Amino acid sequence: MLTRDEKSIAHIFFKLKIHEADGTAFERLFTDIMNYAEPDFQQIKPWGNVGDRKNDGYIKSKGIYYQVFAPEDIRLKYPDTVKKMNDDFSVLISQWSPVNEFYFLVNDKYKGVSPDAEIAMGQLIKSNKLVNGGILTAKYLENKLFSLADEHIVTIVGHIPDPAKVQLDYTVLNEVIQFIMQLSSADVLPPDIEIPNWEKKIQFNQLSKATEIRLNNGYLQVASLNQYLDNNSNFLADELRDKMNEIYHWEKKTYSSDELFWTIVRKASPRSEIVFLSAVIVIMAKYFEACDIFERPEEVQDDSAN
């Protein structure tokens, strides 16, 4: 069975594949995963001047069809995305039957898709009375990957080295910290930001006013962090949450109040420079608000009542 660290390496290897996969390489990655994930999945290969009739793969028994689009930079191709999706579906529905569900898989390289594309897909589903459909992204493929048996994950991503012998920092914490450090000032201050009212929790955990200010400042970037996690796989979000929760529960055996706060910051940070520590505080603000770290007063009261 793959260990937690081995899965973290697999996650990084897969992201590299996604970023390198344009055109047919991305389609090949999709079909490799689907062949393992869906026993009834059938790949359709282009044939002569007939092509694939806009069907890159389907599950015939369920009437589910997939079309794949992998431009070099999806951000420059949003108008093309909507046009290709509609054009491909028009051909597909004239050639294949029954079409109950239609999914347009885009290699967004974890950047997300435009609202216009989502709206266009919704209109396509409604006007053609489909049972279901949607735009799928790299996040969908990675979630599918981590639903597979370990040997199939290794087949897709390649040999996974011994984590103890890997010199680079492959943890999801480091990945997310690097993302936060690259945020621009526009990302930091969304116009509708609202700081949570966590005064009672601050007081209950005996955190100082200075620490509260740091959490408030960190929270200004949480919207950008949430968007990043939304565009990535469930593995990344779950691993990040679990790692912060694990550090908290281990360190609270020894420390409390501000000392506990700063111990978590130092433990989670790969380096001691202020830019790294500040990035960790953004992550802490997210999980402080979600109550994955530090205690809520009502939780402790409920425990004592029992």
Short description:
The chain has about 300 residues and is an alpha/beta fold. The protein contains 15 helices and five strands.
Q: Can you describe this structure?
A:
- The chain is built from 15 helices and five strands.
- The protein has 306 residues and is an alpha/beta fold.
- It folds into two domains: 4-157, Restriction Endonuclease, CATH 3.40.91; 171-301, no CATH class.
- A five-stranded mixed β-sheet has the order 1-2-3-4-5, sandwiched between helices.
- Strand 2 and strand 3 (64-69) form a beta hairpin.
- Helix 3 (78-95) packs parallel to helix 4, helix 7 crosses helix 14 (274-289) and helix 12 (234-251) packs across helix 13 (257-268).
- The chain is elongated and about 65 Å long.
- The model has no long low-confidence stretch (mean pLDDT 89).
End-to-end C-alpha gap? 38 Å
Biggest beta sheet summary: 5 strands, mixed
Q: Mean pLDDT, as a whole number?
A: 89
Order of helices and strands: HHEEEHEHEHHHHHHHHHHH
Count of distinct structural domains:
2
The percentage helix is 55-70%
Spatially, the strands of the biggest sheet line up as: 1-2-3-4-5
Q: Write the CATH fold name of the largest domain.
A: Restriction Endonuclease
Morphology call: elongated
Q: Briefly note the structural class of the backbone.
A: alpha/beta
Over the alpha carbons, how many angstroms does the gyration radius reach? 23 Å
Strand coverage percent: 5-15%
Number of strands: 5
Under the CATH scheme, the architecture of the largest domain is 3-Layer(aba) Sandwich
Number of helices: 15
**Could you name the ranges where pLDDT drops below 50 across 5 or more consecutive residues?**
none
CATH class of the largest domain: Alpha Beta
